[in-house]
TrEMBL record:
Gene Ontology MF term list: phosphopantetheine binding
Record family assignment: Belongs to the ATP-dependent AMP-binding enzyme family.
InterPro entries for the chain: AA_adenyl_dom, AB_hydrolase_fold, ACP-like_sf, AMP-bd_C, AMP-bd_C_sf, AMP-binding_CS, AMP-dep_synth/lig_dom, PKS_PP-bd
All copies of domain Carrier, residue ranges: 508-583
Gene Ontology cellular component terms for the protein in this record: cytosol
Obligatory cofactor(s): pantetheine 4'-phosphate
Protein name, UniProt field: Amino acid adenylation domain-containing protein
Gene3D superfamilies: 3.30.300.30, 3.40.50.980, ACP-like (1.10.1200.10), alpha/beta hydrolase (3.40.50.1820), Luciferase, Domain 3 (2.30.38.10)
GO biological process entries: amino acid activation for nonribosomal peptide biosynthetic process; secondary metabolite biosynthetic process
Superkingdom classification of source: Bacteria
UniProt KW keywords: Phosphopantetheine, Phosphoprotein
Organism: Dendronalium phyllosphericum CENA369
Length: 846
């Protein structure tokens, strides 16, 4: 279907990722080259191929190539812990894995042949561009997705092409995608709605827009992306729909034409909120379906002011049958509860290497005329409404949904049981005041063993995806039991009653700011009392609640804080300090959040916004990055007299975000010199600096040997690429005086407009002024230096820094010139090495 579409619209844009894109023809050719290579490695119908890639153009090329070669893909989510990936690799024994050189390091030991789409790409381009002859039939597998398993290990659901073909055809006949549509790809390959997002778009000529890695969890980013890219089609889970509706700017998302909301029950209140905020009719759909039935099995077009108390899941999609049956597999009457069973074209082939479980869940379909037809027992309780719609009521087992992630509580308990100190455990899902669920683990420890909750949490983090790690852990003497000897889950204590056990001593608020914050926390978390030393995340807070909490903080304190502040300051006491700081009461002058999400300490990069974007896209999604910028407001840079003063002001500002070290600092070119001075000042204040990274920064004064015209052309060229431009009156005259008018016409400058030059010249004037007066001192810590391989100017070895480093100087050469090292493809190598340097620095300093 994709290849037919390529014939229809070869030059149309097929896929967009940040600033890069591929047309249908380009995408097809790349996928063909890779597919030919995969064939040479033995991939053909029936062969499984692991795919461990972040969202990127390569990920789409990789998926298409696997299918073109005839294989079926197995998502290996790079954010999952190694033990989880090891299980999947062990279970599937995929003979081939697609990944990148960077992600390869996080993969566990395996026997597979590896294809690195970054480092090996040049070799791959030697392959034929032509389509392959493909012998795949509808019965061949298209993918295996692993989902939570109640016995302690995940289970692989095997989906054949037939189910996905049916899904796409149903979508197309029902919702009619056109070439004008733009489909957002925000869901991980580990979850099946990603399948329709990608292939519906590519098989029917729409444009696929990839959210940046990690972006799927960031409501502000998504709203911006939807309105900027004019997205028309998207999928999301109810908790994310709620978060988006609470975002500023959601009213600008009027281009949306189709939204699939699914994964768990959709509250009627949310539907009403949707209509009041977006006023879009016939757009929102409640879709229902388990992974075992090829994505969606039923759907309902959401209506305004309906009389439903619970939003129905509607009616079956094409070629799908829904049966609501009692324990004897007899249909129940209209309005009666029964277990929902699914039959038809979407059924999975079963669970990989689990014939018993497959037989238990995929049973003969007594209602079908087709010999051998099966139906899937979903475990979902549902009923038929009088109007023919189906209503989902709940589960009949201990499978739960947390932010729509499917979780078998038994799997978490089974992993806890592997910890030597755990004697017994029960994990349950509780609801916060807003109706969001979170996990609580109740644990009885072995009497002879002491273990900290943080250790138990880490134990689970190493084995389970993040969404399966409980928010709260409660240590109990014994678990409550029912008379027949089962854990009495309903008698497990409420989190509000267990607060002290969670966090130790209760400390009441002591001042006005803390009192206000306690009120906000109690409202958002739906529990009380909350003490000022309680950790937001241990009380059940999660990323979406954090967004809501910070929205309340903004209302009360008129201060917009990024989520990373809460991650680093998760108690009321810490947040109150941040809010009380006068520096923060006025808004930031220099700090610009470039990527504010993530749990790691922030990386501060001096002088630049857009130049750092490609680098950031390759860093850990959990790595927040902030820019420190004075260049975009020329006056500020020019106003300070000395570089030391500028660095001092920068430090004041980063301390509002991160009051204590270890700090991660860096900068490109002259930005590196500022970072260097900041590091010096922080160390003299007794702070730790875990990373000082210089990106092609020359030690000031060491490039003097070159001729003035060479230097001028280099610097102007460099400045022209730095960032936004500003018109500064009279500078053009001054510039002509200092350098002569020839400089302005020099072709080497790549001057596009005079304003361009004038703006940068003003900035450059300030840089020169700083450089002239700045006398760098010997640095006692470690400097990580990245040097551009292509030198535009004559430089000293190690760009002069050897003279000044009393500690260690780690230097690397990166392909590209002064700016090229921050651009693709070179920046991938840079990011890889930078990540190692960050981890090393943090490991040494924490
Ligand atoms: P998954 O395999 O992750 O798609 O999870 C499938 C399960 O999610 C179903 O069996 C239901 O329990 C639940 N589910 C999916 N969509 C909906 C929906 N629209 N309303 C209620 N529950 C849903």
């Amino acid at each position: 279907m994709f290849e037919i579409q390529v014939e229809r619209s070869p030059d149309k844009t097929a896929v967009v990722f940040e600033n890069t894109q591929l047309t249908y023809q380009q995408l097809n050719r790349r996928a063909n080259q890779l597919a030919h290579h995969l064939r040479s490695l033995g991939v053909e119908s029936g062969v499984l191929v692991g795919i461990c890639l972040e969202r990127s153009l390569e990920m789409i090329v990789g998926l298409l190539a696997i299918l073109k070669a005839g294989g079926a893909y197995v998502p290996l989510d790079p954010t999952y812990p190694t033990e989880r990936l090891a299980f999947v690799l062990q279970d599937t024994q995929t003979p081939v894995i697609l990944t990148t050189a960077r992600l390869l390091k996080s993969l566990p030991a395996h026997q597979a042949q590896v294809v690195c789409l970054d480092s090996e790409w040049e070799m791959l381009t030697q392959n034929s561009l032509e389509n392959l002859v493909c012998e795949v039939t509808p019965d061949n597998l298209i993918y295996i997705i692993y989902t939570s398993g109640s016995t302690g290990q995940p289970k692989g659901v095997m989906i054949p092409h037939r189910g996905i073909y049916n899904q796409l055809q149903w979508r197309q006949t029902t919702f009619e995608l056109t070439q004008a549509d733009k489909v957002l790809q925000n869901i991980s390959l580990s979850f099946d709605p990603s399948v329709w997002q990608i292939f519906w778009s590519l098989c029917f000529g729409a444009q696929l827009v990839l959210a940046r890695p990690g972006g799927h969890q960031d409501p502000a980013y998504l709203v911006k992306l939807i309105s900027e890219q004019q997205i028309t089609v998207m999928a999301l889970v109810p908790s994310m729909l709620r978060a988006l509706l609470e975002q500023k700017g959601i009213e600008n998302c009027q281009t949306l034409k189709h939204i699939t909301c699914g994964g768990e029950a959709l509250p009627v209140k949310l539907i009403e909120d949707f209509f009041s905020k977006l006023k879009l009719d016939n757009v929102l759909h409640n879709c229902y379906g388990p992974t075992e039935a090829s994505i969606d099995a039923t759907f309902w077009k959401c209506q305004q002011n309906s009389n439903y108390l619970i939003a129905p899941i509607g009616r079956p999609i094409a070629n799908t049958q829904i049966y609501i049956l009692d324990e004897d597999l007899q249909p129940v009457g209209v309005g009666d509860l029964g277990e929902l069973h699914i039959g038809g074209a979407g059924l999975a082939r079963g669970y990989f290497k689990r014939p018993d479980l497959t037989r238990e869940k995929f049973i003969p379909n007594p209602f079908s005329q087709e010999p051998g037809a099966l139906m899937y027992k979903t475990g979902d309780l549902a009923r038929y409404l009088g109007d023919g719609n189906i209503e989902y009521v709940g589960r009949q087992d201990s499978q739960v949904k947390i932010r729509s992630f499917r979780i078998e509580l038994g799997e978490i308990e089974a992993v806890l049981a592997q910890h030597p100190a755990v004697q017994q455990s029960a994990v349950i899902a509780r609801e916060d005041v807003l109706g969001d669920k979170y996990l609580v683990a109740y644990i009885v420890l072995d009497r002879d063993r002491a273990v900290k909750i943080a250790q138990l949490r880490r134990f689970l983090q190493q084995r389970l995806p993040e969404y399966m790690v409980p928010s709260a852990f409660v240590l109990l003497e014994t678990l409550p039991m029912t008379p027949n000897g089962k854990v009495d889950r309903r008698s497990l204590p409420e989190p509000a009653q267990i607060r002290q056990e969670l966090e130790g001593t209760f400390v009441a608020p002591r001042n006005e700011v803390e009192i206000q914050l306690v009120k906000i926390w109690q409202k958002v978390l739906g529990m009380q009392p909350i003490g000022i030393k309680d950790n937001f995340f241990s009380l059940g807070g999660h990323s979406l609640l954090a967004v809501r909490l910070l929205a309340q903080v903004e209302k009360v304190f008129k201060k917009n804080l990024p989520v990373s502040i809460l991650l680093q300051n998760p108690t009321i006491e810490q947040l109150a300090i941040i809010l009380s700081k006068s520096a923060l009461v006025k808004s930031w002058s220099y700090l610009v959040p470039l990527q504010p999400c993530g749990s790691k300490p922030p990386l501060f990069l001096c002088q630049g916004i857009s130049i750092y974007q490609p680098l950031i896209s390759y860093l850990d999604p959990e790595q927040p990055v902030y820019g420190l910028l004075s260049g975009h407001e020329q006056e500020k840079l020019v106003k300070q007299n000395r570089l030391e003063e500028l660095a001092f002001d920068y430090i004041q500002e980063i301390k509002t975000l991160q009051p204590e070290g270890p700090y991660l600092l860096g900068g490109h070119s002259f930005g590196g010199v500022i970072a260097f001075e900041m590091a010096q000042q922080l160390i003299s204040q007794g702070q730790k600096v875990a990373l000082l990274v210089l990106l092609d920064t020359f030690l000031p004064g060491t490039t003097k040997a070159i001729s003035s015209s060479e230097r001028l052309s280099f610097h102007l060229n460099q400045l022209l690429q730095i960032g936004p431009t500003y018109i500064v009156k009279n500078v053009i005259e001054k510039l002509s005086k200092s350098y002569g008018s020839f400089a302005l016409k020099h072709k080497f400058f790549r001057i596009k407009t005079l304003e361009h030059l004038v703006g940068h010249a003003a900035y450059y004037g300030a840089v020169l002024k700083y450089a002239k007066h700045y006398v760098p001192q010997v640095y006692l810590g470690r400097i990580t230096l990245f040097m551009a391989r292509e030198k535009l100017v004559r430089v000293e070895p190690e760009l002069g820094w050897t003279k000044l480093v009393a500690g260690e100087l780690e230097s690397y050469e990166i392909p590209g010139d002064h700016f090229g090292l921050l651009k693709k493809p070179n920046v991938q190598l840079l990011a890889e090495k930078l990540k190692v340097a960050i981890d090393k620095g943090l490991a040494e300093n924490y």
